[in-house]
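Can anyone check this?
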Amino acid sequence: MVPVRKSLLEIIPAERLEADCTVVAATEQAAVLSALIPQLLAAMLAVTVLLTPCTSWAALPPGNAVTDPEAILRDALPLQQSDLRDLQHRLEGTSDDLRARRWSSIKSSCDRTEKRLALSGTAIVDSFDGEKRPQAEALLSQFGSQLEELCVISTSKDREAFLAQRRAALSSLGSLEALWVEEEFPFAIPAEFDELPRLLGRATVKFNTTQGELTAVIDGYSAPLTGGAFVDLVQRGFYDGLPFTRAEDFYVLQTGDPEGDAKGYVKPGSKEERHVPLEILVPGDDSPIYNMTFEDLGLFKTTPTLPFATLGTLGWAHSDEALDDGSSQFFFFLYEAELTPAGLNLVDGRYAAFGYVVDGSKALKEMGVDDRIVSAKVVSGAENLYPHA
């Protein structure tokens, strides 16, 4: 289960309420009043500021957290090719200028990125081995043409055309980055989990639901055991026909509870549920941490490699009693910038994210407890699933 959001009355300790409501003796009123005046004035000023509408504040974004699922997935790749990463971030960095319609800055950024590509193109191609080099050359050439067209569009100041072309260019760059990291899986999974399936790479899953279709990318580079358990169950048809059992507006939409007494997946011929450990990768670490929350580790301000930062983040559910008893139930995180802001929610560091919905967000927003998954199918990446170590 994911945590239930608390009201302010549940968060404020009772002793704090009692302290704030203490009755002061009459002989002390004057002294207390004198001491409270500065605090009262400060409180009144704060209330005035909070309640006074300010259009300039309202126009500001809630923060700089990355909320585009495809951008998060690009950043999550274990990529050691700095030139590719630099080109990616240069293009993504035009977002701030685009929101402010600073077209001269956008054009300058495009021109600088073209020059950067011209300088680093040979080194990028040379970083691929012989077998992959022709494909890398083709993708890099495609990216170069798309980048050139993007620079032309920037002069016409067509926002929608710029967004579409940038999306295409970043998609080509993402394919090039994914090709680069396919050489070897970046870390060893602990031997204690040898019996569990693992996803050594990425897979794409298409859901057919009662509200329409969703497409999700499952990231085994960051969550190989969680992603592996999920893709394995999709391959088995486990989720076909299952209803959504929990729906909270702007929070979570949960499914994966099978019919019968079991709360998770029971392998045929066995009487016990298969359990998956809590698995979270921290940026900069070589491998995920297992069965420990960020709170356990004192990582209170850390953002995981796969954060709950966008609509349709897939999370693996576990009970309130244990971190390692997740079996089959998962949830879609219903991101809402004001209510569940990136980096300030109740699930980062407590639950494992293992993928993102990259298409079908409109259908996801319409779903509730009256809906169900009609079918789920792996459409690419099935070859990255291994039944055990």
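Reply from J.R.: I decoded it. The chain has two domains: 69-181, 191-386.
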